[in-house]
Amino acid sequence: MRKLASILAPLLFLACGRDPAAPVGVIAADREHHGGGVVIHVATGSWDIYVYDAKSRTTTQASTISGADEWNAAFSNDGRSIVHEVIGSHDLYVTRISTGVSRPLAGGEGGNDADWSPNGRLIAFDGDFGDPNLYVLPASGGTRKLVRVMAMDPQWGPDSHHLVFRDHSDYTVRTIDLRSGSEQVVAGFGLNPAWSTDGRRIAYSDGYNILVVAVNVAGAAVGAPVQVTSDPYGAFINQEPSWSSDGRTILFSSNRSGTDFDVWVVKSSGGEPTRLFGTVGEGDYDPTFYGNTLVAFSKFTPPSP
Q1: In the structure, what pLDDT confidence band is assigned to residue 17 with cuts at 50, 70 and 90?
Q2: CATH number of the domain to which 234 belongs
Q3: Burial class (CB in 10 A: 0-12, 13-18, 19+), 180
Q4: Stretch 14-39: mean pLDDT, rounded?
Q5: Least confident segment among 55-59, 169-173, 187-191
Q6: Structural domain includes residue 305
Q7: Distances in Å between the alpha carbon of 113 and those of 71, 116, 210, 257, 281?
């Protein structure tokens, strides 16, 4: 949901229940690099969306759109579909996880960083760097509504009335009430903000560490940000935080293994991160939780031999 934040290094230096059924695919063992489980995939030779199940330790390919790369997935409120970006047409698509069937989201043309509202009714997104503005539209597709100019990285609050986002002009992390338009600044600088499911905390990246700030029901900060990863400045890139539904764990993407980007978890109170999974030499990006066990993310699918 934070398009290529790990690949666009200059940006960093300037500076998202019930388990769905697995889609049908080709089973290929990858016991070393994906938590001792199996990987289910269809060869595409491109970047696709996968879903990792921490219970079964199975990684299943969700999207298989030909001739395109898929990034920045966000789960629907029932966990059965994902909205994501398609590079090529550069539009938003919705994919049904159980079937792998993808369809363009009408009104999401040119969209990026999409997030599905907790009540399932709306999808928020930005227009990427060519149109750095924040929009919402019905989850079934339709006419987009401009919410805020110069705003990116939107994520819903649990009440489906507030959004947290990054101001594109000064890189502050802010919240906005969609009913009144009132805003609150919660951090002086940040990327990839994510609101906890209980509404009491917002996690974000400063480019190198993951931080958490407590907020009230209006989305205003009620204390100073606290680091939950404690790496020396510039040592690693820790980015793209996402909350477990119980609020105890934060998922994120990091190059802290020293080779490429893998998916890691850390206690929301802070501590030593643990590597959840990753494909050595390829990178795993844009992780997002559903419940406490399912993770959607982007990874490269090798072409057919």
Answers
A1: very low
A2: 2.120.10.30
A3: exposed
A4: 36
A5: 55-59
A6: no
A7: 9, 10, 19, 26, 25
Q: Which residue has the tokens 């398009």?
A: 3
Q: Residue 152 above 70 pLDDT?
A: yes
Q: Is residue 4 part of a domain?
A: no
Classify residue 267: in a domain, yes or no.
yes
Give the span between the Cα atoms of 84 and 104, in whole angstroms. 10
269 Cβ neighbours under 8 A, 6+ residues apart: 228
Examine the pLDDT at 233 and tell me if it is beyond 50.
yes
Model confidence at 42, pLDDT cuts 50, 70, 90, reads: confident
295 to each of 69, 148, 225, 265, 289, how far by Cα in Å? 18, 29, 26, 11, 5
Within-domain flag for 18: yes
Backbone phi, psi, residue 14, to 5° = -80, -15
Residue 150 Ramachandran class (φ > 0 left, ψ -120 to 50 alpha, else beta): left
pLDDT grade for 303, boundaries at 50, 70 and 90:
confident
Q: Which domain holds residue 76?
A: 9-300
Q: How many domains does the chain have?
A: 1
Dig out the tokens for 118 from the structure.
């907790």
